[in-house]
Amino acid sequence: AEPGAIITRVSVASRQHTVAFVLSASGAVSSAFQCALVRNSGARTTRHRVRYTHCGEVRVYRHLRAGSYTFFARAVGPGKIDRTPVRRSFSIS
Predict the structure, then answer these.
(1) Are 93 and 64 in contact, with CB atoms under 8 Å apart?
(2) How many helices (H) and strands (E) does the chain have?
(3) Mean pLDDT of 64-78
(4) What pLDDT sits at residue 77?
(5) Buried (b) or exposed (e) across 22-32, using 16+ Cβ within 10 A?
């Protein structure tokens, strides 16, 4: 089966400008993930190129500026990458 990422927990601490994601996976996975965080900027967000970097089961972002963001995660398995990344939008005020 193709690997698939699942967001099992999200913790947004808006006053501390921090967000944490806990990931798990389904399918043929070696517990490896790739994550990306995009700061939303109106209509341009959908055209923004998402740049993934290696991440673990827990991904924390600190020192975020006020605004709206979208987090993306995809699972990586033996020779395969999840073609349908999960996403979660949130705001920091």
Answers:
(1) no
(2) 0, 8
(3) 93
(4) 82
(5) ebebeeebeeb
pTM equals 0.88
Residue with tokens 């947004």: 12
Distance CA 28, CA 80 (A): 8
66: DSSP letter? S
Q: How many CB atoms lie under 10 A from the CB of residue 63?
A: 7
pLDDT of residue 59: 97
Secondary structure letter of residue 65 according to DSSP: P
Which of 68, 58, 63, 67 lies closest to 16 in space, CA to CA?
Answer: 63
Across-strand partners of 25? 5
Mean pLDDT over residues 18-37, rounded? Answer: 88
Question: For 44-58, what is each residue's pLDDT tens digit?
Answer: 555 567 899 999 999
